[in-house]
Structures are given as C-alpha cells and as structure tokens.
Write a structure and sequence with these properties.
Function: Catalyzes the CTP-dependent phosphorylation of riboflavin (vitamin B2) to form flavin mononucleotide (FMN).
Cofactor: Mg(2+)
Pathway: Cofactor biosynthesis; FMN biosynthesis; FMN from riboflavin (CTP route): step 1/1
CATH superfamily: Riboflavin kinase-like
GO molecular function, one term: riboflavin kinase activity
Strand order of the largest sheet: 1-2-8-7-6-9
Family: Belongs to the archaeal riboflavin kinase family.
Length: 136
C-alpha cells in the first residue's frame, strides 16, 4: 500500500506557550514516544495557513484516521485526546502535525512537534514560509 502525501504551506507564527506546557506532561511525552517513535521537544511550532489548497488539505486531516493518542484521566484532570499525522517540515523529519481534541486554534493554524527545536534547526522566525509533507 502506498502512502498518500498531502502538502501544506504556511508561515511561522508565535504561539501562546501552551504547547510547551502540554509537551512537558509525562503522559503526552510517553504517548508520543510510543505512537510516533520520538520524544518531542517541549514546544510546538505554530504555522498559519494562508492559501486555499493548503487549507483544503488541512481540512482533509479532520476526516483522515491519523494516529490517536487516547484521552487520559488523572485524579484531578482529564488530558484530552490528540490526533497526530507523521510529517516532515522543510524536508526535516521526524515531525508530526498534532490536532488536540480541545484547542483554541482556528483550522488555519496547525501545530507541529518534532524531537528538534524546529525554529533553531531550520533557522525560522515569525513570518518565514515552510512546507509540510503529511503522510497519510
């Protein structure tokens, strides 16, 4: 079976720092290692999508199966599920687009995780254009 590849282009944008909080929670760290095969850097790279084709490809991800990180109940909170898609960004992998079940982001903003601090590894700053290949 061949892997289908979707292309998404966008520009780097600043986040609120929430990705750093969630990616420091042991449940998510261990789950990403188990399901994606890597321990993510403690922070996400946020990308804003600005063209129609990339946005249509992003919307396909809502319907695609993806890799599901299950919801997890702890004594004083519930950690929501996350849908993930193995990806590369500007030809760097491993990486993954993550779509939390509970998010404040509009559909035009995606979050990327990787074992690397992607801003540094790719010399990125806000407004820089990136291309993501998503493997379905």
């Amino acid at each position: 079976m061949r892997t289908k590849i979707l292309h998404i282009k966008g520009k780097v944008t600043a986040g609120l720092g929430e990705g750093r909080i969630f990616l420091s929670i042991p449940y998510y760290i261990e789950s990403f290692k188990k399901y994606l095969g890597f321990e993510p850097y403690a922070g996400t790279l946020n990308i804003v999508i600005y063209d129609r084709i990339s946005l249509e490809n992003r919307l396909i991800l809502d319907l695609a199966k993806g890799i599901i990180i299950p919801e997890h109940k702890e004594p004083n909170r519930v950690l929501g599920s996350v849908k993930a898609f193995p990806s590369s960004i500007n030809s760097i992998s491993p990486a993954a687009i993550v779509i939390p079940a509970r998010t404040t982001h509009p559909k035009s903003v995606i979050e990327i995780i990787s074992p690397y601090y992607l801003r540094e590894k790719l010399s990125l700053k806000d407004g820089d254009e990136v291309e993501i290949e998503v493997y379905l």
